[in-house]
């Protein structure tokens, strides 16, 4: 018998998250935007980037690691490129600004590239790439993070989890989307495993002495490993460079993570690339061809198997959880503690009846 996590009304969770952020002095519009992005990650089954992060965000807002009311500025604009200084604001607020700008550039010039400095965690990357894909744009996003990953053959935390998100618009029911950490497992998943008292898979991490471990606490004290051995490590290093070297953003090894110090100004760097499909053969042609590829991938399974195109599982989760969202008990406990600490009622955290 499979025990399912309790489900909570999605709209109530968005309101709850927004109120918590507002209590930490975030303007209502920014609070609602950020909360909606977190809940969307939970809807898609990406709990590591969902409301699990809300206590961290509020603690960092209160301690000064995240600026509740940033004065974001465009510090450079040249041709199809621009640089945004996010003034240590919420990464979701920075990304909302960036995606609007990069889409405008791409629609005018065929492609746009925007780099970001002085930012913070922006949540699940697919939330942003799929907003661009819905506008007919191929989107690529990457980012620095806090130090958590050692390069292939190493022990020291030099890299971040360096997420890579790519989305191509499709004539099918969902964009062709890959959203992944370049570590063997996402940092948030390791935190979630620790919170839930569960091990992490073999090959995800080493302890502080460089020995393989499945204990998430030892993994957090040690280092995560890159995916794919030396090849994955090379990808992670290049993404680190692209995310930070184009601006004054910090590399992971220069950063103190807000998980360790809520007052840390991490100076996170992002890079966002958008390509207008209409600038090539046509938007209709591109989206039809992507849909054809998706169907070929799905149809490649044997008689007893199932093959998913990238993004299919997350799209199916989001559809299944359109109105109500599953949350792990450990996340609910943390949310209740957070609301109590902020003097907010926790009565919105009432699970729906089990059918």
UniProtKB/TrEMBL annotation:
A Pfam family the protein falls into: Ldh_2
Listed InterPro entries: Mal/L-sulf/L-lact_DH-like_ah, Mal/L-sulf/L-lact_DH-like_NADP, Mal/L-sulfo/L-lacto_DH-like_sf, Malate/L-lactate_DH-like
Keyword Iron attributed: no
Keyword Oxidoreductase: yes
Keywords, sorted A to Z: Oxidoreductase
Similarity field: Belongs to the LDH2/MDH2 oxidoreductase family.
Protein name in UniProt: L-sulfolactate dehydrogenase
Gene that specifies this protein: comC
């Amino acid at each position: 018998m499979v025990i399912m996590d309790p489900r909570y009304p999605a709209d109530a969770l968005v309101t709850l998250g927004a109120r918590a952020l507002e209590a930490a002095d975030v303007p209502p519009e920014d609070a609602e935007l950020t909360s909606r992005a977190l809940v969307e990650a939970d809807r898609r089954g990406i709990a590591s980037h969902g409301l699990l992060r809300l206590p961290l965000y509020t603690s960092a807002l209160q301690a000064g690691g995240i600026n509740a009311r940033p004065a974001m500025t465009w510090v450079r604009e040249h041709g199809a490129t621009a640089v945004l200084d996010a003034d240590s604001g919420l990464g979701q607020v920075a990304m909302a600004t960036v995606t609007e700008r990069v889409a405008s550039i791409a629609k005018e010039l065929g492609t746009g590239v925007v780099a970001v400095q002085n930012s913070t965690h922006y949540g699940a990357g697919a939330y942003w790439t799929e907003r661009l894909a819905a506008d007919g744009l191929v989107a690529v996003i990457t980012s620095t993070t806090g130090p958590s990953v050692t390069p292939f053959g190493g022990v020291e935390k030099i890299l971040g989890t360096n997420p890579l998100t790519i989305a191509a618009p499709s004539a099918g029911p969902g964009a062709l989307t890959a959203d992944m950490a370049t570590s063997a497992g996402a940092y948030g998943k390791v935190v979630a495993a620790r919170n839930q008292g569960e091990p992490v898979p073999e090959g995800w991490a080493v302890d502080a002495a460089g020995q393989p471990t499945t204990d998430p606490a030892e993994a957090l004290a040690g280092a995560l490993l890159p995916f794919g051995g030396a090849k994955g490590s090379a990808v992670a290093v290049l993404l680190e460079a692209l995310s930070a070297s184009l601006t004054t953003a910090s590399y992971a090894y220069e950063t103190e993570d807000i998980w360790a110090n809520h007052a840390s100004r991490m100076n996170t760097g992002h890079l966002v690339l958008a390509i207008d499909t209409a600038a090539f053969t046509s938007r209709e042609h591109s989206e039809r061809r992507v849909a054809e590829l998706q169907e070929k991938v799905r149809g490649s399974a044997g008689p007893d198997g199932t093959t998913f195109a990238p993004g299919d599982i997350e799209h199916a989760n989001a559809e299944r959880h359109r109105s109500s969202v599953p949350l792990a008990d450990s996340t609910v406990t943390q949310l209740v503690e957070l609301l109590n600490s902020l003097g907010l009622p926790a009565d919105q955290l009432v699970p729906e009846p089990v059918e």
